[in-house]
Amino acid sequence: MRAALFYGKEDIQVKDVPDPTDSCDKILVDIEWCGLCGSDLHLFQHGPEVFGDLTKHGEELPYALGHEFCGRVNSAPPGSGFKHGDPVMIDPRLPCGQCIECKSGKDYGCPKQGGIGYNHSGGLAEKVTVPARNLHRLPETVPLEFAALIEPFAVVMHAIRKLNISDWTEQDVLVLGGGPIGFALVIALRSYKPRKIIVSEPTAVRREKIAQFVDLVVDPLERNVPAACRQLCAGGVDVVFDCAGSAPGLVDGLDALKCEGKYMNIAMHEKPMTLSALPLALKHVTIIFSAVYNATDMDETIKLFAQGTFHGYEGMVTKRMLVDDVVKEGFKELIEHKDDHIKILITPKAHLIEG
Ligand SMILES: [Zn+2]
Ligand SMILES: [Zn+2]
């Protein structure tokens, strides 16, 4: 099979490798589409060490990256509940299943978390074997050509649900960043019908793409974001979602919050976050962090995709390509022209591109 093998920092080579073999507890999946994620880019640019323990204790390099992928079952052991041809979405998480977090239903917080496409061979290949528990069957109403987006949507659904807000129609929201996670968040959040959504995004392409889904898009390099929020929403916003991970964004977001506002961070800040306590204390701000999701979030996200609850996610896909082109047209394109893209989808099947 063809696979884009990750050897280490800035070294991915597309090669013919032996097919993975299905075993009694694993299911062989033919991959159709795999999304490129910021974390794949991170691994490519900085090497496996960048995620510390996440990329230890797994397979030996090289293996295929890619954790946002869907496909069809090639073969499944009897009794697994799956059969040849079933459309499936992969939950790439590999929590240990033994620790306190795993046993108390918080496996998203497993300290020994591994992942398909992180420390085990993933979606930038023709085939992969995965444990049955990592597969979610897709209803026929979910188009496979967009199903890989379910993974980043599960990330944002987890963050939205974690806020425990019962009535979103009373909430004004500021979203920092209109990249893949910010875009998915806006689309998902719209189904909750918040009163207002404002997006702060410095790049023109992304501002243009997201404008139709929100009440206001602000260029933070041109305009004072907290002032724009206070102008549109009396007193500021109730909730900020940080999908950008930038220091000026953090300052803007905290400033834009009303008294008792909530700051939900989904971004990976590369530098330590610096906060001034007094203004936040006086406003009684709550800061919450969220990452990944659990199986329920993914099931729920699939259900919402199947019901047609989310509108506009198609616009997230800015490029599709063959796995053979993933280095030059995928990784390097994202490094050199990151701002022109939201989500790039990769397939090993030429007919899916041509058709
Ligand atoms: Zn991802
Ligand atoms: Zn665990």
UniProtKB/TrEMBL annotation:
Its cofactor is Zn(2+). Residues 25-140 form the Alcohol dehydrogenase-like N-terminal domain. The keyword Zinc applies. It comes from the Eukaryota. InterPro entries: ADH-like_C, ADH-like_N, GroES-like_sf, NAD(P)-bd_dom_sf. Keywords: Metal-binding, Oxidoreductase, Zinc. Gene3D superfamilies: Medium-chain alcohol dehydrogenases, catalytic domain (3.90.180.10), NAD(P)-binding Rossmann-like Domain (3.40.50.720). The keyword Transcription regulation does not apply. Signal peptide: none annotated. GO terms for molecular function: metal ion binding; oxidoreductase activity. SUPFAM superfamilies: GroES-like (SSF50129), NAD(P)-binding Rossmann-fold domains (SSF51735). Residues 180-306 form the Alcohol dehydrogenase-like C-terminal domain. Belongs to the zinc-containing alcohol dehydrogenase family. This is Chlorophyll synthesis pathway protein BchC. It comes from Exophiala bonariae.
